[in-house]
Amino acid sequence: MAxxxxxxxxxxxxAIGGLLLTLVPRSDDKVIKGAALVTSLVAFVVSxxxxxxFQPVGAELVFVEDxxxxxxxxxxxxxxxxGIALAMILLTTLLSPIAILCSWNSVVKQxxxxxxxxxxxxxxxxxxxxxxxxxxxxxxxELMLIPMALLIGIWGGPRREYAAIKFVLYTxxxxxxxxxxxxxxxxxxxxxxxxxxxAFLPQNIPFQVQMWLFGAFGLSxxxxxxxxxxxxxxxxxxxxxPTAGSVILAGVLLKMGTYGFxxxxxxFFPTAAVACTPIILMLAAIGIVYGSLMSMAQTDMKKLIxxxxxxxxxxxxxxxxxxxxxxxxxGVAQMINHGISTGALFLLVGVIYxxxxxxxxxxxxxxxxTMPIYATLFMIITLSSIGLPGLxxxxxxxxxxxxxxxTHPIASIFAAMGVVLxxxxxxxxxxxxxxxxxxxxxxxxxxxxxxxxxxxxPLVALAVLLGVMPGPLLRMTEAPVANVVKSLHAVKVVExxx
Length: 498
Prior knowledge:
There is one protein chain. The protein is mainly alpha-helical. It is about 75% helix and about 5% strand. It has helices spanning about 5-20, 30-50, 85-100, 110-130, 135-145, 145-155, 160-190, 195-205, 205-225, 235-240, 245-255, 255-270, 270-295, 300-320, 325-355, 365-370, 370-385, 390-405, 410-435, 450-470, 470-495, and strands at about 60-70, 75-80. Strands 1-2 form a two-stranded antiparallel ribbon. Strand 1 and strand 2 form a beta hairpin. It is globular.
């Protein structure tokens, strides 16, 4: 099974499903929804089978497929993954059917286009994580921008066009600079192969040029994370996006920025990465505190969770650039944990929004009595988000703090402040919504439906499972993370050697 083209199959399943969906009449909503759900579930099953066949050999890529695409330019259709990419693909294929299922009754305008966009978005996301040719990576990177912009701009809230245009402009600005850097790398290395570039670029590109190239790649990835001060598109996109769009955006798309640093920016330009580490750590620490303070000031639940993502992704960046194995593994674990916890938070907010069409903290109160199952699930995910021991958020945050304190203790102090502030704004939100003065308007709200339970329980179960058994995830990502940390340490040795 090692030669089986799992990655091609995974990208093809949602893409072909989306194409076949175009043949279904617009009026046949049940067939459209059912076909989209079945397609995404098939992709999830294939990803699980691939995971069971995953046998990593150090930091080497597995499930490699390599076919010549454009011979004259040495462009290949090359796919291959390591443990980090596999974890992100599993998260993508899990959240995609959940996003489809949570939109089952809430999308009434052009459902065919909505579910088709979700399927094409899934294909693009899997392609980004699976691509091992830099040109192919860029193609997938740009392609996934289109369906996400459509989800926000067509099925979003009142300011959806503004949010979609802002999302596109920010992403395109960074992507164009990255494309120029990709062309420069190709002109000097003669290849787009990621592994070949990782071997060639650090040894053959002068430091000053590395700084420019790292800046071009890094800006594109920093916008996607998003790091402070490139974060301003995120609250608008989250607030205006439909629930499914927010789940995918928070769960997967933001992690493409941190994944880009791990897979491309740091291995390609390690000397520049080390030189820029103080700046990145400073911005990450500011983002943690700023995102937390902004969350405390919000009255809209969706906007509060959006700003919390700025803080949580600051933790990820802090861990990645800590220069320690513990910190970097904590950062990668937090990528997965944030996708689970924040994806679930947006689902939970979507549950109450579908019933009331409002999201203000002051509009609710006493829901713990009205919706006890909903309140219980919300509490578990809230505690997961603030890093309670025994739940998944604790593992990543602890490793990030442990690793960062060894090399950059001041940055770790700011990160610890973010943990405290995170507990303040999340528990304050929970108190307002579930234990505040009871609003008589909502005394008859129905509790979570069986369909909503199906979307929420897998994420709640994972939050608990990864909290008590983080070992499989950490072992899966250990070797590729060690490779990234090793490249940073090699630069430090060179710098201090006479």
